[in-house]
Amino acid sequence: DAGITQSPRHKVTETGTPVTLRCHQTENHRYMYWYRQDPGHGLRLIHYSYGVKDTDKGEVSDGYSVSRSKTEDFLLTLESATSSQTSVYFCAISGGDQETQYFGPGTRLLVL
Amino acid sequence: GDSVTQMEGPVTLSEEAFLTINCTYTATGYPSLFWYVQYPGEGLQLLLKATKADDKGSNKGFEATYRKETTSFHLEKGSVQVSDSAVYFCALMYSSASKIIFGSGTRLSIRP
Fold first, then answer.
1. What is the rounded CA–CA span in Å between residue B90 and residue A78?
2. For every one of its 112 residues, what pLDDT tens digit does chain A have, with 9 covering 90 and above?
3. Mean of per-residue pLDDT scores for chain B
4. Distance (Å, rounded) from C-alpha A48 to C-alpha B43?
5. Which of B98, B101, B106 best tests the A interface by mutation, with the highest count of A CBs <10 A?
6. What phi and psi, each to the nearest 5 degrees, are found at residue B66?
7. Smallest Cα distance from B43 to chain A, Å
8. What per-residue confidence (pLDDT) applies to A24?
9. Residue of chain A with shortest Cα separation from B89
């Protein structure tokens, strides 16, 4: 299994508060991704990174920001959480062929 | 734009039954195609992939063939087991973009 951890695994927060989710990898892969998973939508890409300090938006990036100051860590921040951001968030990294993605265990976020 | 369409679930079968989960795609170029599986409470895992037309991906008894003429990548297994109960996601990806587009997922339940 690829070495990917996410923290926290579960979080409950209130509307309007900032929230940061962390993804940590031990594989030294260049690409890292944040997705959200919602019923009926599959996984949708929020942001991705193709190197330290290099990031780009995905299809559902509004209300989210990311940072990557080290190869192994990719942070996702909800600047002011809303109930529509209640979801399960998955981090992924690219394998050596830059196509296969390996997923973390997910973070379940509830915004009240 | 690019998209992936999967048959809606849930799909319920008896053990040892034949499985087909349909997947069709719309693509402007020549993507790689993937099937990912998600077991309860876990992240997604790569099940199989095919990188060009007429390629067949296979793993754990599952198979899928990249059909360019019908823009399809249907997942099949000859004899399912209870342990195959999971959610299955079809996806496409361009190597140059390093991003994946997922279908909405198909939940599979196998009865003993």
1. 28
2. 569 999 999 999 999 999 999 999 999 998 999 999 998 788 999 999 988 999 999 989 999 999 999 999 999 999 999 999 999 999 999 865 557 889 999 999 999 9
3. 92
4. 17
5. B98
6. -75, 105
7. 5
8. 98
9. A42
The pair of structure tokens assigned to A31 is 């690409």
Residue B45 near chain A (CB below 8 Å): yes
**Cα A56–Cα B71–Cα B29 angle in degrees, nearest 5:** 40
Q: Which two tokens stand for residue B14?
A: 């008896």
CA distances from A77 to A20, A65, A80 (A): 4, 5, 9
**Cβ-based burial of B78 (10 A; exposed 0-12, middle 13-18, buried ≥19):** exposed
